[in-house]
Amino acid sequence: MDRVKRFILNTDKGILIKAGIACIIITALILYIFYEDKTSGSSLVPEENTSEWEVTGSSDEAAAEEIKVDIKGEVAYPGVYTASSDQRVEEIINEAGGITAEAAVDQVNLAQRVHDEMVIHVPSSVEEEAQEPDAEGNSGPAVNMNQAEKEEWESLPGIGPAKAEAIIQYREENGPFQKKEDIINVPGIGEKTFESLQDLLSTY
After folding, report:
1. Residue 123 CA: distances (Å) to CA of 7, 52, 71, 126
2. 92 pLDDT exceeds 90?
3. How many CA atoms lie within 13 A of 17 on its CB side?
4. pTM of the model
5. DSSP-assigned states of every residue in 122-171
C-alpha cells in the first residue's frame, strides 16, 4: 500500500489525469455496449409494416338521378311515375302497364332518354287521324316540342338546322316546354315565327 502511495506521489500529475480520463472513457464504452445489447432485442429482422390502406372503389359513372315523369294518353295506368335519368321512354310505358289497343305507338320515340318533369304522351289512332295542316297545305301530326328531334323541327316552316339545334339546346338546358309560347324564349325565334308555328306544335 505504501508503495502505491509513493508511486502516485512520484508520478507526474499530467500522466495521472490522462490515465483517469482514459479509464472513464473505457468504462463509458463498456456500459454503452452492455446497454445496447440489453435494449436491441434478439431479432435483427425489422418489423413488417402492418398498417392497412383502406381501398375505396370509385365509379366512372355517376349515380342516376331520381326524377319524376308524367305519362298520359293511351297507356293502362296514366300518371306521375318516379324514374331514373338513365331510363328510356319505353321502360316508363311498360311501368304504366303498357299501351292500349288504340295507341299510335309509332308516334312515340321509345328510345328517348327521360328527364325530370318530362311529359310522355302516347296518342291514340284517332288523334293520329286528326292531322293539322302545315304551311304548304299538307296534313301531318303536330310536332311534340318536348320530344321532337332535329329532323322534325327542320320539317316546320321557318326552322332550319341552326334554329332546330338552338331549340333542342334550350330544351336540354331549361327543361321541357310548359306551353307553346315558351319557344319565343329560344334565341332566334320571334313572334312572327311563333305565329306560323303555333298550330303545328304541341307540348305533349
Report:
1. 128, 60, 11, 8
2. yes
3. 3
4. 0.41
5. E-BHHHHHSPEE-TTS-EEPPEETTT--HHHHHTSTT--HHHHHHHHHHH
